[in-house]
Amino acid sequence: MKKHLILILCIINFGLLKAQEVPEIQKRTVTFLETLDENQTNQVLISLNDSTRTKWTNLPIGLAPRSGLQYADFSEKSKIAFHKILSELLSSQGYLKTFAIMQVDDILHELFEIKYNRGEMDDNTIKMIRGLNWDYGNYFLAIAGDPKTDEQWGLKFEGHHLSLNLTVSGQEFSMTPLFLGSDPAVVEETQYAELRPLSKEEDYGFWFVNSLDDAQKAKATLDEKVRGDIITSPDRPQWLETFQGIKGSELSENQRQILHYLIEEYVANLDHKKAEEYLAKLHATGMDEVYFAWIGSYEPMKAHYYIIHSPDFLIEYDNVGFLDNANHIHSIFREKGNDFGEDVLKNHRMAHHH
């Protein structure tokens, strides 16, 4: 009975939170569009049915060109308006992570140029790296549909190590998949030495896995080699049906709290109203139903991976790196059945079916 009451309260809360958010997101997106000239508007707008809306990749632009308007081509007025969209969609931590990830692309270029100037890299290698075209301005925005007039529309902001996806349908919206990565995971040279855009995703993962006793750790750890990427990468199935590792019901109260901190780190990248909605859904199902699995080393700077899997959400984190030095993070947060707004779009079709 108590669980049913909690669920009812969560559903009521979901409706209130959605109703508060959508008009402001729409208003800020329309304001952004009004800063663009005709050519830029034609570049940024795509059809809601365009296949690029529901595809994502974290590859650099040199390997995977994107649709939309390049961030480097935004005017200062457009950048200000766009930042206001992101500050509506993301929490302060999510907003700062997003732009730290973009900044790290420039730092990565600088690090490779330093190696080249030291003679640690040949001409062909540096030419290939320069051709990958990762830098702060090389991210692309595409707006699907017309937020001025359409009940259903979306937004994608994507580039190297970033894929942010918004889908709006009436008063409902989805923010998954949300991919965040960082190369390097920790900057080891230049004035930015020790910058870590995704520090807590790593630190809380180690905190949790090392809170387990030997028997729990053995159950949580999969006897596999660290894969070198998340399992649900763009060219693989986008959801996992099999639960692996240790279940939340097998954890102590303290361990469940640490695991909750780790989940919150991902959910809390979103604006607090959306984060509360997702956390309410997690609590309605219960932490006892969450599974955690680990692969690899229990120490930093050695290859490791974890997955957090509940009936409603999937979180993956991978840190291997091309040099096998665990200094290159990929992470993703997904809501089951609602990537690219699958559920919210379906709900709208059902409600308006005659």
Question: What would you say this structure looks like, in words?
Answer:
This protein has 354 residues and is an alpha+beta fold. It has 10 helices and 12 strands. Strands 1, 2, 3, 4, 5, 6, 7, 8, 9, 10, 11 and 12 form a 12-stranded mixed beta sheet that branches. It is globular, with a radius of gyration of 21 Å.
Write the SSE topology.
Blueprint: H1 2-33, H2 38-44, E1 45-46, E2 69-70, H3 76-89, H4 92-117, H5 123-130, E3 140-144, E4 152-159, E5 162-169, E6 172-174, E7 178-182, H6 199-209, H7 214-220, E8 246-247, H8 253-267, H9 272-285, E9 291-296, E10 304-309, E11 313-319, E12 329-335, H10 342-351
Parallel strand pairs: 1-3
Antiparallel strand pairs: 2-3, 3-4, 4-5, 5-6, 5-7, 7-12, 8-9, 9-10, 10-11, 11-12
Helix pairs in contact: 1-3, 1-9, 4-5, 6-8
Summarize the structure.
41% of the residues lie in helices and 17% in strands. The chain is of the alpha+beta class. Strands 1, 2, 3, 4, 5, 6, 7, 8, 9, 10, 11 and 12 form a 12-stranded mixed β-sheet that branches.
